[in-house]
Write a structure and sequence with these properties.
Blueprint (H helix, E strand, L loop, with lengths): L11 H23 E2 L2 E2 L4 H14 L7 E5 L6 H15 L7 E5 H4 L7 H12 L1 H6 L3 E6 L7 H11 L3 E7 L9 H6 L1 E2 L7 H9 L7 H11 L3 H18 L3 H12 L9 H23 L4 H16 L7 H8 L3 H13 L3 E4 L5 H6 L3 E4 L2 H11 L7 H22 L5 E4 L9 E5 L4 E7 L6 H9 L5 E5 L6 E3 L2 E5 H4 L3
Parallel strand pairs: 3-6, 3-7, 4-5, 5-6, 12-13, 13-15
Antiparallel strand pairs: 1-2, 8-9, 10-11, 11-12, 14-15
Length: 490
């Protein structure tokens, strides 16, 4: 007997034939996608973060066997699934037929997706011996958000069959279908844009020291630069020397074309076009999954994303946006919420009381500087500004993203604000103890005036400047200067 939740259009025999074809062809697909010139692509940090659950499962730890892997389009989720497949086949000698890589973006063309019947046939029919004898089976569902009931399907498989390890990957709309029952069984491991260290490793096999994030935490929250300074020195004397490339030029390429791994091997023109397609895909495919907006409101998402990319953060009140886009303030507000849920943008509020925050517009930034840069260049804005100014704009976005990611992904307990004072610093970190850490960002000559003013205003023990003022981390009295390239490595 087969479960049937959605009433798919394919019958059991058609599903079985489809799955057998997928199983027989996946190995060749994986080989084509994770090798170049017979050299296997390097694995990013997220690969090792999730691989440990595969290893634990193979050692008979059956608790953590349902992984949810959401992330921005183009961020490399599919490549990770291919790499997990290759790891199981090459390192653990798992048979091809014991692994199902199912891309629902392809399966949806067959009609209404009956995901549970697909998995049931894979487990109980194609792998009946493994099912009976409790041998390990692996299910990797890509673009899982195309099956609205994917969470229920995962829950059923998890509860009923203990020898199946599952990863469900998809857009950030994926997390909207995680109910309390699914959430108690599944582990969410979000996949985000890569940092500069990962870019250099993935593209040029340039290895960096470990523990950079931990060292930055010590710098950010305690003003202790010693550990990060030692790592920076090692990078400059070893990693960058072995790279044998102009690091500053590589950094510019990374900021504009390298944060999303799917364009790592594209030229700048191709990378920009692919990135703009990702933006359009999010609007056309992901937003309708998040909320049922009117056609007019969905249409306004395109110019809204352009405005956010081109305007200075903090100048985008809902009233101004309503007038510019010719839609209601309510529609603007809901659209911003949906784009935030899609993780293409995020916002930072003004520092102050709740009532003051409500009166001040939020500052909006892109989850990936690559998307911001692509929109910026496509609009022609890059021709009207100096390269130094463009680098400064992208650096500010990157710093905002890094701090925001530190909070939401790694769950550090602090708050991020922008400084509402005229001529204030770019960001204010409020620690759990209530201390304020001002942060100033920029390319070009940066003096101490703004950061010193913020330190005095907020009675801070120290402040941080991220810029090109210095080539190494230094602490001058109560001001820490961090080179912009060093910052983007953590």
């Amino acid at each position: 007997m087969y479960w049937n939740i959605t009433g798919g259009m394919m019958d059991e025999e058609e599903i079985r034939n489809y799955l057998m074809n997928v199983i027989n062809s996946t190995h060749f697909l994986v080989q084509d996608k994770i090798y170049r010139d017979d050299k296997k692509f390097n694995e990013r940090n997220d690969y090792f973060r999730i691989k440990k659950y595969l290893d634990n499962f193979l050692e008979n730890n059956i608790d953590d066997r349902f992984i949810i892997m959401p992330g921005l389009r183009g961020v490399g989720k599919t490549t990770l699934l291919y790499q997990f497949y290759n790891y199981l086949v090459t390192e653990h000698k798992i048979k091809y037929h014991q692994i199902l890589y199912l891309n629902l973006n392809r399966l949806k063309d067959k009609g209404k997706i009956d995901l549970l019947s697909c998995l049931d046939i894979f487990i109980k029919d194609i792998n009946d011996e493994a099912y009976i004898n409790k041998k390990p089976l692996f299910v990797f569902v890509d673009e899982a958000h195309y099956a609205p009931n994917w969470g229920l399907v995962g829950k059923i498989i998890y509860d009923e069959i203990s020898n199946v390890f599952m990863i469900f990957s998809g857009s950030n709309a994926l997390t909207l279908n995680v109910d309390s029952h699914t959430g108690r069984r599944a582990l969410k491991r979000e996949i985000n844009p890569i940092n500069f260290a990962e870019y250099l490793y993935l593209k040029y096999y340039c290895e960096m020291p470990i523990k950079m994030k931990e060292a930055f935490i010590e710098l950010l929250f305690y003003g202790d630069i010693e550990r990060f300074y030692k790592i920076e020195k090692h990078v400059q004397l070893n990693s960058f020397m072995e790279l044998k490339r102009d690091v500053k030029k590589e950094w510019e390429l990374f900021m504009r074309y390298g944060g999303l791994p799917f364009t790592l091997n594209k030229n700048p023109v191709e990378a920009k076009e692919y990135t703009l397609e990702v933006k359009d895909y999010i609007v056309e495919r992901d937003l309708p999954l998040i909320k049922s907006h009117s056609t007019e409101t969905i249409g306004a998402a395109y110019p809204l994303l352009d405005i956010i990319a081109l305007q200075k953060p903090g100048t985008l009140s809902e009233e101004k946006l309503s007038n510019n886009l010719d839609i209601s303030k309510t529609a603007v507000r809901e659209l911003l919420k949906s784009l935030t849920k899609a993780l293409i943008i995020f916002n930072i509020p003004s520092y102050g009381s709740v009532s003051k925050q409500e009166r001040k517009p939020k500052e909006y930034y892109y989850w990936s500087t690559q998307i911001k840069a692509a929109i910026f260049e496509n609009d022609g804005g890059s021709n009207l500004r100096s390269l130094q100014e463009i680098k400064g704009i992208l650096l500010e976005n990157y710093v905002a993203y890094s701090l925001y990611r530190l909070k939401v992904e790694y769950h550090y307990n602090f708050k991020i604000y922008y400084d509402p004072r005229k001529g204030g610093v770019d960001f204010l970190i409020k620690t759990i103890k209530g201390d304020i850490i001002p942060i100033e960002v920029g390319i070009g000559k940066k003096n101490k005036r703004q950061i010193a003013s913020a330190i005095e205003e907020y009675k801070s023990d120290y402040g941080i400047v991220i810029s090109d003022t210095t080539d190494k981390i230094i602490k001058d009295d109560n001001i820490i200067f961090v080179p912009y390239i060093t910052f983007t490595l953590f």
